[in-house]
Amino acid sequence: MVSTPIDAARDLAEAARTADRGEHVHLLNAYSIALADRHPDLAAEAFVGDGWNLPDGRPVSWVSRLRRDRPALRQIRGPQFMLDVCEQGVAIGVRHYLLGATPSVLEALSDSLQERFPGILIVGADSPPFRTPSDAELAERDARIRSSGADVVWVGLGTPKQDREVVRLARSLPVAAVAVGAAFDYAAGTLREAPGWVRAIGMEWAFRFAVEPRRLWRRYLFGNARFIRAAAVHWSTS
């Protein structure tokens, strides 16, 4: 999908409020594309078909410009996208459900969103176990979301788990399920966000690596290389 960040946020808020079927939304960055290149089943399940694929990573927009796409993809950064949808949704009564993270992060996130956007409707929150949930647990979770009347379910479970989960939710419930990764921690204030100038030059990944090297070194060392390879192969065959 090609759009400006604000247009994308407005479109999702309106679609979520009025749609009678589920939508799954993915914020694609270099790592998610690298995973899809390595695991074709993930690409087929989550990123190919009727979902919303938004270009989260700055390198994705760079490649689009180098390919001279018309129109070129513009970065729609996941953490800001969540805030934009929350802001756009206040006036039309969008109801939000938070899925992921720890109970303390969810509490801080809910408080932060309500402070930033007076009148926002947060109708539920769920901190799932780190293990794979059983079918019965998934059914109970879906029932809670359905009974809440949620329009948008924000899913922060980490890639690729969250991308598979938003597909499952969209097939089970009439909600817009959005995979947003670290957006929960940023909005809650539990994780430092890269300064604006770092984001502007496309080096947010380096800042995140510096903050969390033990957790992210493999992702950026191998993921970035895989992304460059995938982009080069696709470019040469397109």
Molecular structure report:
It is a single chain. The protein has helices at residues 5-18, 30-38, 40-47, 58-66, 78-90, 103-116, 135-148, 161-172, 183-188, 196-200, 204-211, 213-237, and strands at residues 23-28, 52-55, 95-100, 121-126, 152-156, 176-179. The chain has 238 residues and is of the alpha/beta class. α8 links the parallel β5 and β6 (176-179). 38% of the residues are buried.
Tally of DSSP helical segments: 12
- Judging from the principal axes of the Cα atoms, what is the shape? globular
Q: What gap, in angstroms, lies between the N and C termini? A: 18 Å
Helix content: 55-70%
Please provide the count of β strands. 6
What oligomeric state do the depicted chains represent? Answer: single chain
Residue windows where pLDDT falls under 50 for at least 5 positions? none
